[in-house]
Structures are given as structure tokens and as C-alpha cells.
Amino acid sequence: MNPIPPAIWLHAATPALSGQAARLGQRLARAGIALRESDKAGPVCRMVLMDEANPAQLAALAAQGEDDCVFALLCCAKAPSPAASWTVLAAGAADVLWWPDADADPAPLLARVQRRLAVAQLAGSDAVRQTLVGRSAIWRALIEDVVEVAAFSASSVLITGETGTGKDLIAQAIHQLSGCGGELTVLDCTTLSPELAGSELFGHERGAYTGAVGARDGAFAQADQGVLFLDEIGELPLPLQAQLLRVVQEHKYKRVGGNSWQPSRFRLICATNRELETEVAQGRFRADLLYRIAGWRCRTPPLRERRDDILPLAAHFLAAHAAPHPGCELDPAVRDYLLTRDYPGNVRELRQTVARLWHRHCGCGPITLGAVPPEERAPASMAAPWPDAAFAGAIRHALDQGMSLARITQASADTAIRIVLEQEGGSNQRAAQRLGVTDRALQIRRKARPADGPPL
Ligand SMILES: Nc1ncnc2c1ncn2[C@@H]1O[C@H](COP(=O)(O)OP(=O)(O)OP(=O)(O)O)[C@@H](O)[C@H]1O
What we know:
The chain is of the alpha/beta class. The protein has 4 domains: about 10-125, 3-Layer(aba) Sandwich (Rossmann fold), CATH 3.40.50.2300; about 135-300, 3-Layer(aba) Sandwich (Rossmann fold); about 310-380, Orthogonal Bundle (Helicase, Ruva Protein, domain 3); about 390-445, Arc Repressor Mutant, subunit A (Orthogonal Bundle), CATH 1.10.10. The protein is about 45% helix and about 10% strand. It has helices at about 20-30, 55-60, 80-90, 105-125, 125-130, 135-150, 165-180, 195-200, 220, 240-250, 275-280, 285-295, 310-320, 330-340, 345-360, 380, 390-400, 405-425, 430-435, 440-445; strands spanning about 10, 45-50, 70-75, 95-100, 155-160, 185-190, 225-230, 250-255, 260-265, 265-270, 295-300. Strands 6-7-10-5-11 form a 5-stranded parallel sheet. It has a 4-stranded parallel sheet with strand order 1-2-3-4, sandwiched between helices. Helix 19 crosses helix 20 (about 440-445). The longest helix has 19 residues, at about 405-425. It is globular. The site of adenosine-5'-triphosphate (ATP) has 18 residues, from helix 7, helix 13 and helix 15.
């Protein structure tokens, strides 16, 4: 990796803090770190000096934008309370540091900046962007997390998510980014039969059972010095789960029919589309195994939570088909069709949809609506019209009550926000994605509610 160029942008949340910001700038310069003169070019770490978590200073923090990493430096004599730190974090800070003295040693700050910029550089590299396609905020946040855990830790990783959301791709990326030099060994737990599972996992000695004419390595031996990916771990029968406990924790195992412990230095990645907590509660998955495999967890979002990625993904899949005909495009009506249809099979379904369009398309020029197979045309065209009679009735009722247009507009937006937040389990990020606004815009809107209004 290339050395990370200094890329720090300092901002004082209030004019009273500009002196402190200048002193910190000088301190950073003495440590060999030049500040960015412009905050526009390339990834940058923003540092916002604040002295209070009040709405004006939180807004100054939020205004730094959402594409870069923002550190909040709380320049106050007394350490901020945990509640204040959480509030600042919720306003969009990547971290909150107490910074009582502008002349303090900037080493802790610089370590964080170096890490964030290294992560941003890797996440923005061609290798990552061309494999893990997506530009939505929720996808970019996931990729940054994946890069950080893959390249800067040796933790086991549990990837959960619906079918076709990219769990397999993420596992491959973690292997590549981990730089371990060893192989990626993939074992699909749905294919393990109870009779042969021991041998598949641990290998066997010669003569261990009828038919074992020679000794054989299993997955844990093959994954030594590399990465072991246990796909569909939620399908593993309980007796096999028990057999994994020791090897996952102590990194040593016995071959079937063998007596000696064999070491294996592997990094473990597991994936499942099951909710493992529910499986544990229902007695189908061992809690002790769950805690061992979930050193770090990530969730690949379904395509409906990242609709901004539909067209970039479609272009990516089309480019793979249309390589001999570069520049092949989708007609606007086809783009609209792709944007409005449902994808229960997620990205895999989108990929197959694009393949079908490509196969039905002929000649030069853009792919047009005729390429949509007849049996797939209904969903977009049959979408219920909106606004409908029920909506008009609700508006009529509000007008009858003497509500102003401003009040009706605000109530409609607040209702939409409340419903989406409820559906998304309170996740601001996912709600913002569905509403088509930025995370920060939604946070600010939620905070700006009058004290006497219902909470959002
Ligand atoms: N972000 C992405 N960029 C490019 N291709 C993607 C992306 N996400 C998924 N895909 C493609 O979608 C298909 C399904 O992805 P993948 O096999 O990784 O999903 P999965 O979550 O492991 O599915 P399952 O649970 O069914 O095994 C693959 O062809 C993969 O290349």
C-alpha cells in the first residue's frame, strides 16, 4: 500500500474555538503533519473542535458531510459525560475524543487518522470497487467495516444476510484483504453428511473406517495459514456443531482415527442466511459456538435497502455480458423497470434479470422494453396508483379540521419517517436510505422536532 498522504481538515465549531484549532494545527505541523488547504480533493479526515454537544455545534459537525470521516474533539476542561459523547457520535462523528489541551501530544489522534485513511484508500481501490459494486451509503459503510476487520485484525467473522446479497463475495474479499498468503478453503455446510462430516472437516487416518485406504487431510488442515470459509453454518447439525467447539477456540484438532492433536492456524469466516440468535433460542444452534464464530459480525443488506445500487450493479453485470459490444446501454424505460421491480433473490436475481434482458436483446443500440420477458412485465405496470382514494380521504379530513398546507406537509413527512423508522427497527441509516435522504438530513430533522411534538 502507498504511504498515506496527510489529509486532515480542521474546523472550529464556534469562532471562540478558532484559536484552539490554530494551536492544534501548529502542534500537528510540528509532528510532521500538514493540514489540507482545501477540503475538496480526495479522502480527508475532518476534525471538528467543539466545546459542547449543543444543537448549533452538532449541526456544525453534521455539516461536514457524510463522505469523509469526522472526528469530534471535545475541547472542554471536564471530560464529556458518556451521554454527551453518544450524542456527538449519533450526530455523525466517527469517534469522540476529549481534547482539553490544544498542546497535547497528537499521537492518539494521528493513529486514528492513519487508520481511517488507510481503510478509505483500500475501500476505494479498483480491486474492491470493481468486485463489490455499490455506492449507497449503507453499502459503503459495510465495505469500510469489512476492509477494517479484514486488513487490520485477525478476528473470526460471521456474515449474515438474505440469499443473494453478496456474503460469498464478502468472504472472498476478506481473504484477499487479509494478506495471509494462504488459500481460501470453502466448505458448504449443507453438503456435509453426518457419516462423512468428520473426515471432511478433520481428515482421517488410514484404516479409520471401512474404505479409508489412505490418510486424508480435512478442511482444517487445508486451511492452515489461510482462511476457512464455512458457508451456510446455520445448517450444521447440532452434533457437528459440538465437534467444532475445540478447533475453533484452540486451533487444534484430531483426525478421525488419530490420537495426536494437529495444529492449524486458520482464520475463520462463517456465513448464514439464518438469524442465529433465533436458532439459539429455538435450540437449533449452540450458543457457545455462536460466540466463538462471531468475533466480528456484518450483515449484507437486501437489495431493497440499497436501491441506489440497482443501476450500478445492472451496468456491472451488463458490461460482463456485453464486453464484445462496449457501450451497450439500457433504455430509460428499462432502467425504470429495473428500479421499480422487486428482487426477492436480491443481487443474484438482478444479475439473472440483466442476463435475460441481454439474451433477448439483439442488434445495436440500447436494450429496450421488448427485451423484458412477457411473464416479467406485470410487476412494474401493475403497481397500484398513488396517491389513492384513501390518501385523498385523509387529506380531506385534515382540511376539514382547518389544517394549513404547511401543517399537512409536515405531518405527512413525519408520518412517513415514523413508519419507516418502525419498519427498520429504529435504524436511522436504513430509514434514510428508504426515504431517499441522507443520514444526517434525517438525524437533523428528527432532532429539530418541537419539544411538544410527538418523538420521531
Ligand atoms: N455488491 C456486489 N457486486 C457485484 N456482484 C455482486 C454483489 N453482490 C452480489 N453479487 C453477485 O450476486 C450473486 C450472489 O452473490 P453471493 O453468492 O455472494 O450471495 P450470497 O449472499 O452468498 O448468497 P447465498 O446465501 O444464496 O449463498 C453472485 O453472482 C455475486 O457475484
